[in-house]
């Protein structure tokens, strides 16, 4: 499986962001990935005044753009958006997975809202149900996580218990003291402790850290972008995955009983 992680910064202009998505997917598709991962909040950036007015349904313009690009280039896409919820003032922070045929593979509504580091995401957004979401792409099982979810290892473990061998982590990881260190450390930890791949696509620019990357099951970054706009492509190997899990059978050696949530 080939994965492209794309790094860019969205704006408050939804039309401009849709055009940006179209260009970015077209560019990354030149390297023939099976999956293109775009950052969190790709539909529109966070706004201090709230995001309720810009939220869309899953059949709205943003999702239509993803589906069109997926079909045009024959790639699956994961990207972040704000989805309308039953609370008109507090939508969901949603990851949408679209298949290469344009089908909707799954939607993950962010469970852990970013009420930390002086920010309160729950003022603007509704948390999703505590239900891990996995989807299938090119023979691999992807577990969907968003940004702040990375700080909660129980979610990544629940996704792996549902069969995920790749954790897909779109993010808008806010810059700040030690924040970049936290980002790279936690991505590496989630890969090592679960002996799985981690594919992280982050926003960059003045507000966000960038540092998009793909990490293998031994915690090695096998592709990375840095701070600038761009994308990186990595080849994920089933032999590498099974080999690491044979050498380091930490999942099999667990003593705690875990029942995945459905």
From TrEMBL:
Residues 1-238 form the CN hydrolase domain. It comes from the Bacteria. Keywords: Hydrolase. Signal peptide: none annotated. InterPro entries: C-N_Hydrolase (IPR003010), C-N_Hydrolase_sf (IPR036526), UPF0012_CS (IPR001110). It holds the Pfam family CN_hydrolase. GO terms for molecular function: hydrolase activity. Belongs to the carbon-nitrogen hydrolase superfamily. NIT1/NIT2 family. This is Carbon-nitrogen hydrolase family protein. It comes from Kribbella antibiotica.
């Amino acid at each position: 499986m080939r994965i492209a992680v794309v790094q860019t910064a969205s704006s408050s202009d939804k039309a401009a962001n849709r055009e940006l998505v179209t260009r970015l997917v077209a560019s990354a598709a030149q390297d023939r990935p099976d999956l293109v991962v775009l950052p969190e909040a790709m539909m529109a950036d966070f706004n201090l005044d709230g995001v309720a007015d810009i939220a869309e349904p899953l059949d709205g313009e943003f999702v239509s753009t993803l589906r069109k690009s997926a079909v045009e280039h024959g790639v699956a896409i994961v990207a972040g958006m704000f989805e309308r919820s039953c609370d008109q003032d507090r939508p969901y922070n949603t990851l949408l997975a679209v298949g290469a045929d344009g089908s909707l593979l799954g939607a993950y509504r962010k469970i852990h809202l970013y009420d930390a580091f002086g920010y309160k995401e729950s003022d603007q957004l509704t948390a999703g149900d505590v239900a891990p979401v996995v989807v299938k792409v090119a023979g691999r099982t992807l577990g969907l996580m968003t940004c702040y979810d990375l700080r909660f290892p129980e979610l990544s473990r629940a996704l792996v218990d549902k069969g995920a061998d790749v954790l897909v982590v779109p993010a808008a990881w806010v810059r700040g003291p030690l924040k970049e260190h936290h980002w790279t450390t936690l991505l590496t930890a989630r890969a090592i402790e679960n002996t799985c791949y981690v594919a992280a696509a982050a926003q960059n620019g003045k507000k966000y850290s960038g540092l998009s990357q793909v990490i293998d099951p031994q915690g090695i970054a096998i592709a990375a972008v840095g701070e600038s706009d761009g994308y990186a492509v990595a080849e994920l190997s089933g032999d590498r995955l099974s080999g690491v899990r044979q050498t380091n059978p930490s999942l099999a050696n667990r003593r705690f009983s875990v029942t995945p949530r459905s």
